[in-house]
Design goal:
Strand content: 5-15%
Helix content: 40-55%
Bound molecules: 5,6-dihydroxy-NADP, zinc ion
Largest sheet: 6 strands, parallel
Structural class: alpha/beta
Order of helices and strands: EHEHHEHEHHEEEEHHHHHHHHH
Radius of gyration: 20 Å
Mean pLDDT: 97
Distance between the termini: 37 Å
Number of helices: 15
Amino acid sequence: MNNFELKNPTKIIFGKDTIKQLESEIPADAKVLLLYGGGSIKKNGIYEQVKKALTKVEVVEFGGIPANPEYATLIEALQVIKEENITYLLAVGGGSVIDGTKFLSAAAVFEGETPWDILTKNIRTEVGMPFATVLTLPATGSEMNSGAVITRSETKEKLAMGGPGLFPVFSILDPQVISSIPQRQLANGLMDSFSHVLEQYMTYPVEGLLQDRFAESILQTIIEVAPKVLKDPTDYDAAANFMWSCTMALNGLIQKGVPGDWAIHAMGHELTALFGIDHARTLAVIAPSHYKYNFEAKKEKLAQYGERVWNITEGSIDDKAYAAIERTVAFFHELGIDTKLSDYTKEYEGTAEKIAQRFTDRGWLGLGEHQNLSPDKVEKIVKMAY
Ligand code: NZQ
Ligand code: ZN
């Protein structure tokens, strides 16, 4: 097992009817900017619950943060923070609203001229403006990690940022919020969280016995609850296990002591930036070809995953590893998610070359757990995903 440090300061408040606890968690003297997305919270009762819990503090609102949080919109919110002397941010939404809020937390204290530099120059935020979240969509784990991904439609870019100052102070996770989520977004949440575990697990063995079993248990839980969540999002126990699995998949715990891959996300983000494909679905497009292309390097973990998660016990390591990839693709299809780029766009010709060129331009010359996935290999993987 590799050396590691682990610190996660986010307080999690989990369970039924917990949104009202905002009242005691937000400092009484805070001037709060309440941030939300396209308006789903106004239809499902979450907005009312939040407002009721915030009657004792001063609140300004900023709605309209789109899925794949858009830089131009966030710059408008930054103006509001400055004009209104906001001291505390509250994100009520899914990964997009939370990530947008993390950007604002960083941008509010940023001393440079252009906040976009935070993304392009890899500026880590040591201390941001304090913020909290009310999670409305389990998927990204953003509610308990310090990373964010921001989109700039003007340049068709989607870039990551982060830093130890970007953990939420607290996050409220009430699984009842799931009942209003459309099927497409439920499937996305299941897919994204599953893939977060795979990115931190499907590498090579390092005797991280407990880490492997943490990861496998999250995968098994997602597989078990997926059909229940999709069939009946009001099933509280399924919703609760789904929500907690998503948080645990990307709150830092399972990545400690083991190598990480994250090349699937790097390629996937480009497909969202270029075509607007939902984040989770881009991962389903890239993962199968990524695992096939890197089969030799990953086959031991693929076989272990096949055995422990899918009960694939017959055959050699190669047989089990290959069957594990096939079973994974079948699982994505069971979620209702297509796994080829051509299922999402007719304009796919040239995409692989474009992504490889972007990675070259950014100096991303060696992705993956061995840092040897060069742009020419990226090009081949993306082509295999057409
Ligand atoms: O905007 P509203 O009206 O709220 O509707 C949203 C949005 O249309 C809707 N929704 C959310 N909660 C709902 C609901 N509809 C009904 N009932 C509810 N309770 O769902 C739609 C999608 O929301 P979004 O926040 O975009 O989804 P998700 O949570 O999947 O977030 C995706 C974003 O997170 C980034 C992705 O790249 C993408 O930009 N990621 C962030 C990560 C992180 N910070 O750690 C890691 C991930 O790998 C990912 O990259
Ligand atoms: Zn993801």
